[in-house]
Amino acid sequence: MAKFTDHVAHENAVFIYSPSQLTYKFSDEHPFNQKRLELTMDLLTQIGALNAQQIVPPRTTTDEELLLALDADYIDIVKRAGHGYVTNAEGEPFGIGTEDTPIFPNMHEASASIVAATLTACDYVMQGKAQHAVNLGGGLHHGFKNKASGFCIYNDSSIAIRYMQKKYGARVLYVDTDAHHGDGVQFSFYDDPDACTFSIHETGRYLFPGTGSITERGTGEAYGTSFNIPIDAFTEDDSFLYCYKEAMEEIVADFRPDIILTQNGADAHHFDPLTHLSCTMKIYQEIPRIAHDLAHKYCNGRWVAVGGGGYDIWRVVPRAWSYVWTEMSDFEQPHGPLPEKWLKRWQAESPVTLIPTWDDPSPLFEAIPRRAEITEKNAQTLEKALYTLRHKI
Amino acid sequence: MLVENLMIQKVYTLKPTQTLFDAEELMRNRRIRHIPIVDNLNHLVGLITEQDLKRAMPSSLLTTERNSLNNRLIEEFMVTEVLVGHPLDFVEETALLFFEERIGCLPIVSHGELVGILTDTDILYNYIELTGAHKPSSQIELRTADQIGVLSQITTICANHRASIISLLVYPDANDSSKKIISIRVKSISPQAIIEDMRKEGFELLWPNLPTM
Which residue ranges does the record assign to the Histone deacetylase domain (chain A) (predicted)? Predict the structure, then answer.
């Protein structure tokens, strides 16, 4: 039985943030860099899309909440590692002290603050205090219950889904548009028919983490509540959006969630240094719009968004994530030039020349060979991924 | 790798005096294609395959004829000359046997008793495991000269970046016998630095790379 309010919320949308999220920092050279939050917020503030009243500081989180999706001995080792009591060799079985997830001071506190922010977002939406909420610092989708992986220590989405199930009796649809497969979240709910996970990502044939094939559909009673669309390397906007939109519409209509949780990794862009997709800003204009529409159509508006990957923090992430917030807060979708002041401020620090406009210049890159075949293959992948929906078995 | 590491130990079997109906039902319920036939001492006395069953049965449109055959005994149509394997056989050699004899399964016998079964599906799955991603990792593919020391050069690069290697395959380049293809999965989401070093040392990267027409 649902334990959340169904009345229309007072606030349209809230932006969960505190500077403590910036302490989730492995090193100056590490590709995962939360400076992107500062760049994004500055951009939003300068166009008048984000004001102080909309920003909500996160509450704190308890170990009990973390234990909803994490093992106690893992939490313990992360706590001790952040205070200098764990060597790399001791941390390695737990995925910490590695090149991807090195040990850093107060790593437990930093990771827990990200979880807290995502839980705050969920509370706002489930209690009807806001229709939508975003925590761009969250979306650490590779974390497992007993292991850090792929830059992610605590999987805030897994914890948030369990939390919403337990506290509010909610059916949650998790949607992951990061270029990497959302493995940590998927496998946390692989046998749970009350949570549905959908991930669209670059094929794991070469790219990390390697999972996320169409045949991963869930197990036991949860068979058919896990969806994967592994698209080909060098996939472009139209093919990406076609697969995403078709899948979203059919999955939401079938699963009938109480709330949609979207993970908005911004690493499917052509510029992203870690992945091999060839998308542009166009997908980041459309992805939140489709989620937003469906949340209103099926979930009384309930939509929580988190961040995720995104490793071109200068040219890609600030614009891409701004679109999540402008969509969510009903601010008119920005186009045209970026604010002069923003460009000037951040160009001074950026190692690459910033893109001066909201939309990417066209064409952004040389024509992709085999575009037709890639598009055809992705359409076939979509068809196979939705097989259990289209042919009820 | 030995057959005993790969074989299925829980084998579904029938007795020679059971019926065609029993065989058909077992295959359907367990979604299997091969049934070893054993006596009371678990000695292998025959084998029936989905193929044998299809050959013995009339068309599914001829319902009456089919039903009239349901009670015929397995021993009437099972294959009695069965190729068998041993738990200590090598999987690599066994795979060749499947290929050369065009068989779909191999009952595994030890001390006269049936102890397991290996099918073409199991061997295929093993290949998927060997080449696939079972732990979060990224794949890099290179073409190198077939020279001594190349592999140590490559693994040194991985070690320098403290990247653990999940799997590594070396196989001949089908188009150039003086070259080898090396496919590595490393436990890292960001293999860029490794890839850069490989390029610096002059390795030809097949992946990551742009697709060619």
Answer: 30-327
